[in-house]
Amino acid sequence: MLVACDKFKGSATALEVAGALRRGILAERSGAEVDVLPVADGGDGTVDAALAAAASSSSATAAAPGFDERRCSVTGPYGEPREARFAFDPGARTAVIEVAEACGLHLVDRHALGSGALDATVATSAGAGQLIAAALDAGARSIVLGLGGSATTDGGAGMLTALGLGVFDAVGAPVGPGGAGASHATRIDTAGLDPRLAGARILVASDVTNPLCGDDGAAAVYGPQKGLPPERIAEIDAGLGRFGALVERGLGAAPGEWTGRPGAGAAGGLGFTALAVLGGELRPGIDLVLDLLGFDAAVAGADLVITGEGRLDEQTLSGKAPAGVAARAGGAPVVLVCGSSALPRERAVAAGFREVFELVSIEPDAERCMREPLPLLERIGRLIGGCLAQLAARPPEAR
Question: Left, alpha or beta for 74 (phi > 0: left; psi -120 to 50: alpha)?
Fold first, then answer.
């Protein structure tokens, strides 16, 4: 069988989840073959999944690339220096980058943001560009760019300037940081853009379909959770529109060709610049990651697939890791493990999960489930091991 779980956010990594389930299954069925392949959906945890797959000695991950961890110094979302990680496979010359490592919302002091001590209109994506430059320095020719979890709404202006593109205001000075800075841009200069980008393939992992601007755009939809004051959302949205139009003119593109593209509003507009300027290819996050990790080879011949994440709900079924795993399980029965589920069992079964195991079913205290998930996951593993034959039995039409 194959255990291919995502992280339980804020509680356990994907590798920890899979390891605990494996221990529980083997405690009940010592002779079982249990391979482990931690997965992610292109957001936070994608670098960890790549590193964990490479580190595993499981035969299931033999087809996975040989990633190792690289670190570099970057600019954080509010200009603070920080160390960020990416995964790099020297043989394949492939890098896996999460923009959240450099400019993620999890790096921001929410108290300072809520008190007004931090101005969300100046949060910068420069660190994301520095991560890309570090990957190119390492020799990357292919870059997987995960766009989830950013603290920024600058249209990717910071990322571009870090990669050498000039962005200037009306008096010829470089614009300031964030969406506030990008809104003052009147000229761009592509002459200094890192020439290595032209020879690199950039795969953009995102399930966001929002355009750059408008009622469904980056500022209106995602700005509030990043600390944009309601009274400034229209201002930042308009500024992103002007910046996007400026970039399109500079590239010789038709008005709206890139700003209106589904996914342009991902990560505060990083989707726009990644697609329009860097030539990125937008792909559903989970499919991109499963391809990267060699999932199809890992699942071949598996008689049962176990997947999971912290919370099962309708969002799970819209491009999250467990849904992607179920869709590519190759006909093998799929069991889902989660902390808790908001879906009726019938809905989960209809979505492709033979059975759902919840931590709260064996420990009603949700706080303990969050605080001490691994012993509970081992107990779930034992439950799965105890009914393995029933779970793995395929219906006649699937045999």
Answer: beta
Torsion of CA 247, 251, 253, 257, to 10 degrees: -50
Scanning 195-317, the segments in alpha helix (DSSP H) are 230-251, 270-276, 285-292, 295-299
Q: What is the mean pLDDT of each run of 10 residues along the chain (399 residues)?
A: 94 95 96 93 90 64 72 97 96 96 94 90 98 98 95 98 97 97 96 96 94 97 95 97 97 95 96 97 94 93 95 90 95 96 94 96 96 97 93 64
Domain limits for position 171 = 68-286
Q: Cα–Cα distance between 322 and 313 in angstroms, integer? A: 11
Burial of 311 (0-12, 13-18, 19+ CB in 10 A): middle
β-pairing, 2-3 vs 35-36, is parallel
* CA distance linking residue 67 with residue 143, whole number of Å: 13
Could you tell me the CATH number of the domain that includes residue 385?
3.40.50.10350
Written as six digits, the tokens of 137 are 């320095």
Cα radius of gyration rounded to whole Å, the chain? 22
Q: Same domain, yes or no, for 28 and 77? A: no
Structure pTM?
0.91
